[in-house]
Design brief:
CATH topology: 2-methylcitrate dehydratase PrpD
Strand content: under 5%
Number of domains: 1
Largest sheet: none
Distance between the termini: 51 Å
Shape: globular
Order of helices and strands: HHHHHHHHHHHHH
Number of strands: 0
CATH architecture: Orthogonal Bundle
Length: 288
Amino acid sequence: MYKDARELIKLCKEQNKHIWEVALDNEVKLTGMSRERVMAHFSNRLEIMFNSALKALHAKQATKGSLIDGVANCQYEYSNKETIAGNYINYVMALAYSCSEVNASMGKICASPTAGSCGIVPAVLLGVMENKNISREKTLEALITASAVGAIFTKNATVAGADGGCQAECGVAASMAAAAAAYMMGATDERCLDAAGFAMINVMGLVCDPVAGLVALPCAQRNASGAVNALISADMALAGQVAHIPFDQVVDSMFKVGKMLPPQLRETAMGGIATTPAGQAIYKEIFG
């Protein structure tokens, strides 16, 4: 069992195992299920993630208020053109948009860690797997690595926007995805956690301000940008950038910052872009 990153790395070294292996052992103990059955559950969730990441690329989904109908296809079509950030980055953004669009249309997604942030981990896993020809087996190990990061945030901070702002949802998702991406590219366990820390630092303090109270706008855009955040954070770690603040301290800081945010900026739709004239007009149009 482990409660934080320090204990997780300690177990990895003592048992000569990677993060995903220690996390898997922990899950077996917690659930009482066999290793094979737990792996089957992870595999099923990975399949759900990939399905939602691909579903809206070609078929527009009908969402409440039509706020994000077709955003995935729009980004996907653009990813095949001359872009500023490159085709790959735009494709990953499209995958993240797809998950958000499927979620907002009441489709089947995998909360990772929440429904509002469901696109970041799938987009990064699928994007890296395809682009770098990573095996599905290693991608599954990366998903379990991501789950270990998510578990640390859950135990020591929060993954609820109502409790800690969007940094607790899209921020944590980006941290999870960054660790996963780093693992897929051969990073050490310590560097995987460094990547996770970079991703959270990049968006610390991010508020939760859903327009009309719906998990669509700006959630979908933050899923797309969160996926990119995860990728660049993984690259920072892989490049050898020094993580001066240990991951556990980043988690602790995120929790404290979340508590400092006023209620208006924690999923109440009473602050941020939700209260702009355009945001209020959207609310009135949808709900009268």
